[in-house]
Amino acid sequence: MNHCRVLLAILTAFFLAPLAGAQQSDWTPQTLAAFRQAASSKTEFTLDHGMLAFASKLDSDNPDLRRVIAGVSAVSVHDYRYPGPYMYDLDAINALNNEYHAAGWKQLANRHPKDGGPGATDVWIRFDNFAISNIAILVARSNEVSLILVSGSISPLDLTHLGGHFGIPKIEGGVLVPNGTRR
Question: Out of 46, 61, 147, 152, which could bridge 76 as a Cys pair, Cβ 3.0 to 4.6 Å?
């Protein structure tokens, strides 16, 4: 039932976005094109602050979520699925890391397989006047690559309150919690 309310909020936001003149969030890396090329399905959307505030009201039992949303200006989700394991450009993960570094972002977390194999979980942050202004999360699995961008005044701890909402993976105790509905 809760998933239905979030889906309804997202669909409503999509239909209201052109009327509200919603703007895209800040900078998006060019490397995303490499992940799009081989994807068999793509899901990409941006929710501005108004859309996020509206959607957070549907989860009235979560005051932490509403508090965090107050400081968030936008959330962008880029999710790509592939027909087979590791059919995406594996070098694009390193290229994405390099692109974020060149743009002045700081890498907060970097989890790659010990043997150098495919897959990754990376978290980058961008500061503005000693405060976090943007967070980017990359999760690369065998058949899926997801990049989530959060813009606004937010702490890494606040990110845990957003987990499980708006396409952001759920994080508990600093560990990514797998979504049971994923293939």
Answer: 46
